[in-house]
Amino acid sequence: MTRIIAGTAKGRRLRTPTGDRTRPTSDRVREALFSAVESWCGSLHGLRVLDLYAGSGAVGLEAWSRGAEAVTLVESHRRTADLVRANAREIGATATVQVVATTVAAYLAGAPTTSVDLVFADPPYPLADDALAADLRALVPWLAPGAMVVVERAHRSPEPAWPDGLVGDRSKRYGETLLWYGHAP
User: SUPFAM superfamilies, per this entry (predicted)?
Assistant: First the structure.
């Protein structure tokens, strides 16, 4: 079961896709992620959040529940994106949550409409490191000064190739999951 951990939608369950298309970020990892984010910024209130490779949408919807001003979730699988939209409706997050059904590369190839303060990227573990590096390069123009970028990978994966405009800070392992933290200067 995946649920919202804190904020206005605390305790609300989220539906997740069936099969092996996604692996929702566990409650434990999401709690650690948001603890790190809140120690960085104090609060998510007013932040603009981008959830790339959104899967079930648990991270982006958690950010909304904790007060993010606007959340965009990018998920390439159309049925999964529809499920995320349904989850957003069920928790009352439709006004400030946008779900985009396209690839991360296609989304980031567009012109940024606003800068983002927090990015969570949880690419499928089989995604090649060079494809992730290309997506991170394309992300840089979207970032507000000082924006935080968090990349979730398998614990055996190498550190992401941080492009110019992003600086890797640290990593933290949670079982099979590794979170890499970076920031825009």
Answer: S-adenosyl-L-methionine-dependent methyltransferases (SSF53335)
